[in-house]
Amino acid sequence: MPVKSIVAKSIVETARRATARAELPFWKRKSLAQMSKPEWESLCDGCGMCCTNKLEYEGTGEIVQTDTCCKLLDPRTARCRDYRNRKKIVPDCIKLTPKIVARMDWLPKTCAYRLVHFGQDLYWWHPLISGDPETVHQAGISARGRVIPEDQVEDITERVVDWTA
């Protein structure tokens, strides 16, 4: 085979791979650290589960879910009432970053940040896949309608739930 033909085939194949890669959605092409702010924010499916309270048992380190949530989470919408100022109002609110996502084993197994970090695909109900922000709620994945704000609860230890069943 002439050298020219090999070079031409190589160029065509490289272009084909680049085109195929460009057609992939950003969460399959980029790491969390490479995402723009709008891309990062769009990964949030709006489930509100990261804003629910969990308990960690001393000694075992077991983490359990409660049906209580941050006082800023609106239980009817599963959205933060003041997302922009949340850190000022709730100083211990954890702002997710790529480094934090890598360390947070309490994030829901369905969390898009976690899925992308581990190289997995998003679920069918994720708004970036379905095109509809309601599918996360319709699929029963969200905190919507299942939680009460922590400031309305006397003893959070009595509020442990198992939503995996």
Quick gist of this model?
This protein has 165 residues and is an alpha+beta fold. The chain contains eight helices and six strands. β1 (52-56) and β2 form a beta hairpin.
Helix content: 25-40%
Structural class by sheet pairing and helices? alpha+beta
Give the N-terminus to C-terminus distance in angstroms. 62 Å
Strand content: 5-15%
Low-confidence stretches: none
What is Rg? 21 Å
Strand count, sense and barrel status of the largest sheet are: 4 strands, mixed
Order of helices and strands: HHHEEEEHHHHHEE
Number of helices: 8
Model description:
There is one protein chain. By secondary structure, the protein is of the alpha+beta class. The strands form two sheets. Strands 1, 2, 5 and 6 form a four-stranded mixed β-sheet that branches. The termini are far apart.
Question: How does the SSE layout of this entry go?
Answer:
Blueprint: H1 3-23, H2 26-29, H3 37-43, E1 52-56, E2 63-69, E3 73-74, E4 79-80, H4 86-89, H5 98-103, H6 112-117, H7 127-130, H8 135-138, E5 148-149, E6 160-161
Parallel strand pairs: 2-5
Antiparallel strand pairs: 1-2, 2-6, 3-4
